[in-house]
Amino acid sequence: MTPVLLVELNRGQLHEVEAPAEFATSEPFSVELRNHGEAVHVHVRADDALAAAARIDADGNLFVERETTKSVPVGVGPVDDPVTGTLEIATGYGSESRTVEVTVEPESDGDAVAVDETLSKPQRPDPTPDGPSLGERLAGALPGRRVVPVLVLGIVAVAVAAAVANAVRSPAVLVGAGVVVGAVLVAVVALLR
Fold first, then answer.
1. What beta strand segments (E) does 36-151 contain?
2. Is the model's pTM score more than 0.90?
3. What tens digit of pLDDT does each residue of 101-125 get?
4. Where residue 145 falls among pLDDT bands split at 50, 70, 90?
5. Angle, helices 171-192/147-168, rounded to nearest 10 degrees
6. Which own/partner contact pairs does 70-75 have at CB distance under 8 Å and 24+ positions apart?
7. β pairing state of 96-104 and 22-25
């Protein structure tokens, strides 16, 4: 958001100018001329010291309608060291004026990142494992001791059913063998859940 230098006009009486004594910035800013009374001509001017670092991006002689606010953009160039000068705001053909001491500061390197020597070396993975070992993971995937006999019995039942169905070659025996295979599969799924 653009910094704002607020100037109050005609608050108490005609041609009255109220402004802060000083203002500091490192980026372009806006002089907001807020008129509380009758329409007025306002002259905004930077002295030579301030003009070296800032420029008023509008005609210096402005007309501000009654009860309105007029924005005057002020551009700021890059500086290596702080530059201080005055900005004069005058009304009533110079009968009333106020000066603001404006300091244009160098841009801060707030986005700068400190680089350390350690960043130039590749990072090595931590030698200590974070998760379980391979043996623990395999033990978790394999069925428990009570499930193994049931699985072996199921495999034997499927093998016997397949052998009988192959030897007899009867449709009734084939359907019976299919039922045995299906029952064993259901039992295995129920056990492993």
1. 40-46, 54-56, 61-64, 69-76, 83-91, 96-104
2. no
3. 999 999 876 655 666 666 666 776 6
4. low
5. 170
6. 70/32, 70/33, 70/35, 70/42, 71/30, 71/31, 71/32, 71/33, 72/30, 72/31, 72/32, 72/33, 72/44, 73/28, 73/30, 74/5, 74/28, 74/29, 74/30, 74/31, 74/46, 75/28
7. parallel
Residue with tokens 């100037």: 7
Q: Is 28 helix (H, G, I), strand (E, B) or coil?
A: coil
Contact between 12 and 45 under an 8 Å Cβ cutoff? The reply is: no
- The amino acid occupying position 165 is A
Rounded-to-integer distance, Cα 174 and Cα 178, Å: 6
HSE-up of residue 27 (Cα within 13 Å, Cβ side): 6
**∠ Cα 47 100 55 (to 5°):** 45
For residue range 1-57, what is the model confidence (pLDDT) as tens digits?
889 999 999 998 999 999 999 999 999 999 999 999 999 999 999 999 999 999 998
Contact present, 62 and 41 (Cβ < 8 Å): yes
Q: Is-contact 9 36, C-beta < 8 A?
A: yes
For 57-81, the pLDDT digits (tens) are: 888 789 999 999 999 999 998 999 9
User: Of 34, 19, 44, 21, which is closest to residue 103 (Cα–Cα)?
Assistant: 21
Helix, strand, coil % over all residues of the chain, rounded to 5:
35, 30, 35
